[in-house]
Amino acid sequence: MISLSDFLIVSAGLFCIGLFVTLTKRNAIQILIGIELMLNAAILNLIAFGKYDRFTNSGQTFALFAIVLAAATTAVALAIILNVYKKYKTIDPDKTDQLKD
Amino acid sequence: MTMVQAMFYLMGFITLASGLFIAISKNLVRSVFMFFVTLMALAGLYVLALADFIAITQIVVYVGGILVLIVFAFMLSGRETLANLQQQQSKFIRIKKLPAILLAVLFFIVMINVLFKTNFDGLPWIQQAIAQKNTIGTNDAMIGNIGVGLMTHYLLPFEAISILLMMALVGAAHISRKEKGI
Amino acid sequence: MEDFLQHIDTLTINFALGAVIMPLLAAIVNRCLPANSKPSGWISTLAILVSAVLSIFVFAKVWNQHEVHQQQVWFTIGNTSVYTGILLNNLSVLMLVLVSLVALPVHIYSTAYMKDDDRYGRYFVYLSFFCFSMLALVVVDNLVLFYAFWELVGFSSYLLIGFWYTKPKAIIANKKAFIMNRIGDIGLLTAIAILFASYHTFDIEQLFGANGVVKSAAISSNWQYVACIGLFLAVAAKSAQFPLHTWLPDAMEGPTSISALIHAATMVAAGVFLLGRFYPVFTHDELTILAIIGCFTAFMAATIALTQNDLKRILAYSTISQLGYMVMAMGIGAYSSSLFHLATHAFFKCLLFLVAGIVIHEVQHMKDEYNLHIDPQNILYMGGLRKKMPLTFIASVVGGLALFGFPLTSGYLSKDGILIQSFEWAEGKDWLHKLIPIGALLTSWLTAFYIARLVIKVFFGEFKAAQFDPAIKLHVSDGKWQYRVPLVLLMGCSLFPLFSINPILYEKAWIFNGFSVITALDRVNIYHTILPLLVNLVGVIVMYWAYAIYIKEKALPLPESGFLFRFSYREWYFDKIYQKVIVLPVIALSKFTRWFDRNILDGFIHLLAKIGIGGSKIAEWCDRYLIDGFLHLLASITLGIGNFARRFQNGKVQYYLFSMLAIILAVFIFKILIY
């Protein structure tokens, strides 16, 4: 049987990798990927803890919700990225540092 | 080492390794496909965590939806972006990224530190769950239970999330439409 | 009766004050008018006319009657009060009336003489100011004010000598006059200081009056000598006596009317007036020295006058000579004769100067008209003016005869009085003392010669300048009434009736008797008969001789190349000697002091300055690097904090995220470390 802490360690590693990707990448799509990685790390935690809730299944249910929300955020984020690209001709977040006026 | 454990370590390794590749790779296309691998490995991990329905959903939603969206967006954002991205130098570690690396590593250390300090078997709610047989066993099918739960216990969040999802899709469509007057 | 007298006295004082103040008012009014305002002349003339009338009234009230002396406290230092006031006795009222009477014709004359000058109004400012100073000088009753007005008189003289300040010679002349007068002023100041130290009063009445302290208690002898030397210097400077006489001939650069009033009649007489005021100070020996110097000056100036060609210079030396007579008369104790001569000389010398002024004026016109290159003051170019200017000619003859001392003129009365008394004084003394009367006698004959030469050269013979241009027609005239009236007035004053009913005996003259206080000389009758005869007979011969030399062109008594001639012509080389002996060493001394000042004193000061600069540099360094450094440090710290804070606000999403996470991490680490 796999212990709880094993899942948590993998989850922590995945979270840190996502963090790193989010911080360093110069491309909005890659940043989005980094965010997804962090979300997945969180979902993994939910599922790992969800093992101890057999009757209500709250962990798994909320994991489902999180996946759906991730899909929604991704859709919105990609729409925004496309718009940003249309305006700035780039999707480097460092270069899109001006508000639309 | 049991078969299950071997599978876990394999899946964990694939997850982390592909994540690292995403982090290191300069190539957007490769990182997108490596993200696909990561998601698959994660689905495997979900299965090992006794959440097979979630694993399926993961594959369906993420791989079938999100990843396709990303690929589309990446394709729509122009050839010059692609060219730019591909020409980036591929140094392994750049001095510019050092603070981010430091931050990530420290975060990891902090979390690991917390994990190792915690004795999970001694936690009260886990002991209570074990005492009440409230744990999912390897042979339990949870799909029916989840379906009932969604329609009864979690109806309100379910409906809320449905509306939210619809709003997000409408909003995304609205944002990405061609602006006329501006 | 007492009250009445008191009232009369007050009136007299007020009149005297009025006489003094009037010219000052005129000067102030004229100063406010533009520099060339034409009414100035008449304002000044009116003022001096009022002064003259008031003076005559005062004179009538005071002369040979009780003295009028009124004073009040001026200021008090410690226990000593200094009084100021007016002292009217015979001497001061005589001077008062003399100055105003001589000044009146000069004013009238000036209105015509200065008519074309650009600074006509300024001229009358100075002239009126001079009259004020001179009138005030004669009436003040204390030495401080006396000194002040003595200075003011010198100052106005300075202004007027340099009146045509565009002429370099005039500038040099007035500088010279000023410096010479400074020497005298120092002497006077010294004398006043010593007198005050000895007697603790400045009051002239208390010092030299009938019961004056000077008579009763002598100063210790050494200081007395110093005081007398000081006084003598003052007299010599003001009255142009022997060592300090050279400024007077140069002072002739001023307008001729000024020469007539200031440098012939009034201001130069101030020295003699000073002697008259301070007479009791001098001891017997000092008076003898005074007599010797006076006699020497008279003789020297007369010899110089013999050969000069400049009309005004001749008259200037003649003035020096006559002043020498007065000083000599003071020295031999002929106090009253001296003042008598002062009075008569004022009139006839003023007359002569006015004549000279008219002649120069006319010749100048001729020169301008025919564009001749001649000096209008040089008598060698004149001649034959007698027929065209009859009144001027008569005036010059009267003035000349009075100067020589011809009978029926005022000069005869005063000058022969001096001569006779000098012989009486020398009577019974050794031959050295006899030199003085003999010198005076010789001077008298020399006077006859040079004045005859002057009159003959100017008025007889042919107009010499005509030889340059035969076309010249001599059309000169006596000029306007402003010229004629003063001449007639002064001519009247130069004749005997104003001074004595008896034209022969000087002792009958009222001025002479007005000062009968001091009569120490025994009367020796024989001189009274012989001397006038001798003087006049020889004098007439001398005059005829001069006529013979210059008109009939007989041989000169001295060849022009001779040493004596040159000695006289060069004015006894006084200027050269002074230049070599005094001026050059003084200049050398000044150069040395300048060098000393520049190199040593300034060096020291520069050293101090450099030390100061060094100190300031250190202070500057401290300021810049310590104080400013601290401030800059504060500023850069603030700047650094600002920049540091600014970096978080750079608009980069990832950076914000990084910062946020870093803080969260820090909190976690902190929490772990604590627990």
Write the layout of secondary structure elements.
The complex is a heterotrimer of chains A (101), B (182) and C (675).
Chain A: H1 4-24, H2 28-50, H3 58-88
Helix pairs in contact in A: 1-2, 2-3
Chain B: H1 3-24, H2 28-48, H3 52-76, H4 79-86, H5 98-117, H6 124-131, H7 143-151, H8 155-175
Chain C: H1 2-32, H2 39-62, E1 68-77, E2 80-88, H3 90-113, H4 120-139, H5 143-161, H6 168-199, H7 204-208, H8 213-216, H9 221-238, H10 247-250, H11 256-265, H12 269-278, H13 284-307, H14 311-331, H15 335-370, H16 390-404, H17 410-426, H18 431-459, H19 481-494, H20 510-514, H21 525-551, H22 563-569, H23 574-647, H24 653-674
Antiparallel strand pairs in C: 1-2
Helix pairs in contact in C: 1-2, 1-4, 2-3, 2-4, 3-4, 3-11, 3-15, 3-19, 4-5, 5-6, 6-9, 9-12, 11-14, 11-15, 12-14, 12-15, 13-14, 13-18, 13-22, 14-15, 14-18, 15-16, 15-17, 15-19, 16-17, 16-18, 16-19, 17-18, 17-21, 18-21
In short:
The complex is a heterotrimer of chains A (101), B (182) and C (675). Chain A has helices at 4-24, 28-50, 58-88.
Q: Overview of this structure, please?
A:
The complex is a heterotrimer of chains A (101), B (182) and C (675). Chain A has 101 residues and is an all-alpha fold. Chain A contains 3 helices and no strands. Helices cover 74% and strands 0% of the residues of chain A. Chain B has 182 residues and is mostly helical. Chain B starts with a helix and ends in a 7-residue tail after the last helix. Chain C has helices spanning 2-32, 39-62, 90-113, 120-139, 143-161, 168-199, 204-208, 213-216, 221-238, 247-250, 256-265, 269-278, 284-307, 311-331, 335-370, 390-404, 410-426, 431-459, 481-494, 510-514, 525-551, 563-569, 574-647, 653-674, and strands spanning 68-77, 80-88. A two-stranded antiparallel ribbon of chain C has the order 1-2. At the A-B interface, helix 1, helix 2 and helix 3 of A face helix 1, helix 2, helix 3, helix 4 and helix 5 of B.
